[in-house]
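ugh ok fine here u go
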Amino acid sequence: MRKIIRMLTAALTALALIAAPSAVFAAEYPIVKLGSTGPDAAAVQSLLNDHGFNLTVDGKIGSASVAAIRAFQSAAGITPDGIAGGATLERLTLTLRYGSRGRGVPALQYLLKQKWGFGVSIDGIFGYGTETAVKSFQSNAGIASDGIVGQTTWKNLFSSATPKPTPKPTDKPSQKASDIAIAKAKSLLGSTAYYGYCQRFVRISFEAAGIMGYASTANEAWSKWGVSTSSNNIPKGAIVYFNTSSSGHAGIYMGDGNVIHAVQTVKIESFEALKAKYGYKGWGYQGGVNPNL
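structure:
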C-alpha cells in the first residue's frame, strides 16, 4: 500500500511540474540606496523629480538623492530610511500608457533604453516607439503584452530576475498616430455632423489614434497646445488654427499643403486658401502629443 502511495505521489509531482507555466519569473523591486548606480538609480532619481524634487539624473545615488528619498517616504507615510525598496517604488510609480506625458515616462524610458537596450528616446512622451518597446518587453517577461505600464510591468522593468529580451531598436510601428487620425478624418468626409464643431471633429479623429485631449473650442485648444506661429514646415498631423470668429477654427494638416476640416461639411482644402480666407494663427498638437513619434 505504501509503495502505491509513493508511486501516486511521484506521479502527481511530475504532472505538477509539467503543468507549471514556463514563463514565471520571480520579479521583485530592487533596493536602491546610497551608493547604488546604473539605470535603476537613474529611474528612481527621475521618479523623485516627478514628485517635485530637483535631482541631477546621473544614475548615482548620493546624499542628495537619499535626502529626497527620505522626504518622499515621510510624506507618503513610509519609514524614512532613505532606501528605495518595494514599498517606496510602488508609491513612486504610476500607471502609464500610450499618450502619457511627463510624470513617470522618462523613468520608464531610462529603464527601457539603459537597462534593457531598447532604442527609445528619453523625451517624456509615451509615443508609438515607447509603446512598441513596452509590448516587446512585456511579451518577453511573460506578462500581458498590452502596452500599459502598471505595477507588474514596473516590477519586471526594475527586476534583475526578468530574462533579457532581444530588443529591435529599429522596429517601427505599422502606422503612426498621425496616419490613423487622418484616416479617421477622411472617413468623415462629407459629414454634416460637425458643422460648428470643428474642434470636436479634430478630437474625434485623434481619439481613433489613442490621443486624448479636450478643448471646447479651437481657441481654447490653441491656448493649451499651440506650438508655433510659423507657417513653414508644418508637421503632418499637426492642428492648424485660424482666426474665423471668437471661438476660432481648427483643421488637421495632412501634408502636401492640404488641410482636412469641418465647416458645413467635412472637406479638404489647401492650407494657403484657408490662410488667405480666415487668417492664420499657428499650429500645435492635439492633446499636446506629437502624433509622429
